[in-house]
Specification:
Helix 1 runs antiparallel to helix 2, helix 1 crosses helix 3 and helix 2 packs across helix 3. This protein is mostly helical. The chain has 4 helices and no strands. 85% of the residues lie in helices and 0% in strands. The protein has one domain.
Length: 110
């Protein structure tokens, strides 16, 4: 199997995006970053490629399940992941609606 340069670049870029999302989640779980800072950054990353953010969330969810005996720490981490997923889902669903409203109001006022 021979990969072209574009494929190699995509794979490298994808791995960096997953690593970036994982780093952001790690910082928030460790208390080094606030949820308010994490959410917009992940939303931006999610809007460019959902697959990579979902891979990071999946990786963290698997780690939480594997360490469920950690008790309160695992509960906080799982709550964070649920909040992140809800935020991404809600804000991604609202973006196309907002764009439609802007275009329809813009068309009506012209």
């Amino acid at each position: 199997l021979k990969l072209g340069q574009g494929s190699c670049w995509e794979a490298m870029s994808g791995a960096e995006d997953v690593a970036s999302a994982v780093r952001m989640l790690d910082q928030c779980m460790a208390g080094d970053a606030a949820d308010a800072n994490l959410m917009p950054q992940l939303l931006h990353l999610y809007s460019s490629n959902q697959r990579y953010v979902l891979a990071a969330l999946s990786e963290k969810a698997n780690a939480i399940v594997a360490n469920a005996s950690a008790g309160p720490a695992a509960a906080r981490a799982s709550t964070l992941l649920v909040n992140v997923a809800t935020y991404l889902d809600t804000n991604t669903a609202e973006q196309p609606k907002a764009a439609k409203r802007r275009s329809s109001t813009g068309a009506a006022s012209s």
